[in-house]
Structure formats: structure tokens, C-alpha cells
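Much of what follows relies on a compact textual record of a protein's fold. An example makes this concrete, so a full record is given next.
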Amino acid sequence: MTEEAPAIDPVLAGYRSSIDNIDAALIHMLAERFRITKAVGAYKAEMKLPPSDPGREERQIARMRALAESANLDPEFSEKFLRFIIQEVIRHHEQAASNG
């Protein structure tokens, strides 16, 4: 007994192709962001600066929430996303400080 593959819906395929392109762009953008934050971490370690900057982090979160609202994106989601990234950056900065 063989099952036939479902017919490919060209509209859905087009949407999915766009989503795949956006996902690829997001990955490349995150890679670039982390490349820069890695340099920041090395600089902070060299200058004996703390790995985190809570004031900057809160300003960035407020900025991202405002950007999200203007882009019709859930500001709660944008904050969760940025906090996740910040936690990872701080972890990298702590590693740089301990290796310095």
C-alpha cells in the first residue's frame, strides 16, 4: 500500500520559502551580533569592566519594546527575546573575564 504525497500548494510553498529566507537572515544577523558582543566581552575583560551593564540592558529592553509596538509585534515577546540574548551575551562576557 503506497500513499501519495500531498499536492504542493504553490501559495503555501511561496510563503514557506519567504519564511526560510527570513530565518536564514535572522541566523546571519544573530551571528554578526554575537561576533560584535564577543569583541565587547574581550574589551570589557581587558579593561576589567563588569560583564553586565544593567542600566544599558534596561534601556535596550525599553527601546526594543517601543520598536516592537511600532512594528505591531508583541512587546512581551520582544522583551523575552532580548532578555534571552542578553543572558547569553553576559555568559560569554563572564567567560571572557574568567579567561583573562
The chain has a mean pLDDT of 93. Residues 41 and 93 are 4 Å apart (CA to CA). Helices lie at 10-47, 54-70, 75-99. The chain is about 80% helix and 0% strand.
